[in-house]
Amino acid sequence: MNIVVTVKQVPDTWAEKKLDAADKTVDRQSVDNVMNEMDEYGVEEALKIKEAHGGEVTVVTMGPAKAVETIRKALSMGADKAVHLTDDSLHGSDALATSAALAKVISTLSPDIVITSSEASDARGGVIGALLSERLGLPQLTQARKVTVDPGAGTVQIERLADNGYALVEASLPVVVGVVEKINQPRYPSFKGIMAAKKKPLTTLSAADAGLDAASVGLAGAASTVVTSEPAPPRSSGTIVKDEGDGGTKVAEFLSAQKLI
Amino acid sequence: MAEVLVLVEHADGEPKKVTAELLTLARSFGEPAAVFLGAPGTYAKAKDYLAQFGAAKVYVAESDDIAGYIGGPAAEVIAQLVGEAAPAAVLVAATSDSREVAARVAAKIDSGLIWDATALTPDLVATQGIFGGSTIVTSKVTRGVPVVVVRPNATAPEAAPSTPAEQVVDVAISDTAKGAKIVDRVVEAKSGRPDLTEAQVVVSGGRGLGAAEHFALVEKLADTLGAAVGASRAATDAGWYPHQNQVGQTGKTVSPQLYIAVGISGAIQHRAGMQTSKTIVAVNKDPEAPIFEFADYGLVGDLFNVVPQLTSEIEARKAG
Asked: What are the pLDDT digits (tens) for A121-135?
């Protein structure tokens, strides 16, 4: 099974995120950056599929030079090799351009399964799986809380989250799978894994190496633009009351005064 | 006036409230043209609703080739309609299914995509709360027909009775688009409560509940208020409540009139999914819980005393 898993380096969830004042892209300089937490579930699922059915796991990321830290993490978890698409011209790419660039790189790897996660914590679009499916012309098995691969039949079945339960969705390989975070428990990199990661193959590609047209990526190729940006008005705390045995009644009085009941 | 395509959000033909919101929004800058995609025989249930909220036209595409697959077929039909109708914009609801369809449409028609808009001006400048609502941006599509994913509760729906022209769409879905086949739909929890993202009132439970069975307290309060039930990630990770009900980063984003957080500390991940709620009420025994920093009304106390008392107080007021 040839498995590709996409990862993204993002500002730490706990960091105060902001947009760069000049070009209104996510400021990745002033904050600690980590692997998007959701992507850990994607890497874990890739490793589980490899462990069950054999094969190889290739990590693919697009991002600035320091995104190599996130690649190292995925490799230390157990992925076999990595491709890092990095180029100044890619800075400011929107989801559409990012998906096109990733699809271009991924298609050269001839995967059986492409794994993404449900969303990145910085942009929260939740669309990369659908977009890769569209770009690669592969079945969209996104929002999966369970993935079952049947190599003999050449099929993959998932449980796709729905509002009141799930849909059982099936497709023939190759496929794009998008996982949600309840699917597994990502492993921690072991010391051995961290050491081994340093020797694993890492291919670094520029936009030109990947065959990307500079006009179609980055801020130049973006199909939307941020017009204005400002901090949300701070939400101040209101009335705080300690329960003296009549707390429930007090809350009801507040709701009533606000005409909410 | 140019058409504005509005993807009808529905469950087996029963329209969701957000559909009325999108039709109302579309009317502010164009001619609302509803796009109904569903299984054969489902449109009949949506027809009157779409007329009531002012659809000038309805594109009807009923086919198992659409309803039986994920993503691809719906995107193909909408992209085809964009080609034929040259609309001013395409509006879809920010549900997990429709946002994926919207993204595929934008890729197909090489147009810009904006997600989670909370407002949209007639000249198509969208407002979005990013980074969990801590930054407000306005943004604009600069290429193609804007595809805008709009949050439920962003617009107040206004009825505008019309007699829509119905146009049956010739559905011819490619084999590539029919890759991910739905073989079964399994209902695990049918609550009868409103949709979490559409609800006017949401009551959520968190770690402070301590056990799955204690969610009954939250559900009872929710039912008294006609509310949806949410859960923090701590509660869903513990398996106390379904993942579908998770509010926050990696879960649903809600923006109700009233949000009641029960036993939820209000860490940044949770805050990201609910801080645009109009009024926030929190019950937590820890006076240092971050939720008290942004709640409109905070009650420091034992939820096992406060919540049942609140529930019976509301019941008593309703009866009185």
From this structure: 888 899 999 999 999
Minimal CA separation from A100 to chain B, in Å: 9
Contact B301 A119 (CB under 8 A): no
**Residue A125, token pair as written in the block:** 């679009």
Which of A166, A168, A145, A170 shows the shortest CA–CA distance to A156?
A: A170
CB B48 within 8 A of CB B20: no
Widest CA span in chain A: 69
Q: Which residues of A touch B70 (CB under 8 A)?
A: 139-142, 160, 167, 169
Instruction: Say if B290 is an interface residue toward chain A (CB within 8 Å).
Output: no
Q: What is the ipTM of this complex?
A: 0.95
**Residue B4: per-residue pLDDT:** 98
Q: What is the distance between the alpha carbons of residues A146 and A133, in angstroms, rounded to a whole number? A: 18
Beta pairing, strands A56-62 & A2-6 = parallel
Q: What is the average pLDDT score of chain B?
A: 96
Task: Write out residues 181-210 of B within 8 Å (CB-CB) of A.
Answer: 181-191, 195-196, 201
Exposure on the CB side of residue A77, measured as CA atoms within 13 A: 29
Nearest CA to A156 out of A109, A112, A110 is that of A112
Distance between CA A147 and CA A128 in Å, rounded?
A: 18
SS3 (DSSP) at B297: strand
Residues of B in contact with A251 (CB under 8 A): 281, 283, 297, 299, 306, 310, 313
How does DSSP classify residue A65? G
Q: Which of residues 235-274 of B touch A (CB under 8 A)?
A: 236-237, 243-244, 249-250, 257-258, 268-269
Supply the pTM of this predicted model.
Answer: 0.95
Phi (first) and psi of residue A193, to 5 degrees: -65, -40
Structure tokens at B172: 């011819």
B/e letters for A144-159, b = 16+ CB within 10 Å, e = fewer, are bbbbebeeeeeebbbb
Cα dihedral sign, A11-A14-A16-A19: positive
Residues in chain B: 320
The verdict on A87 touching B (C-beta cutoff 8 Å) is no
Is residue A152's pLDDT more than 90? yes
* Three-state DSSP state, B205: strand
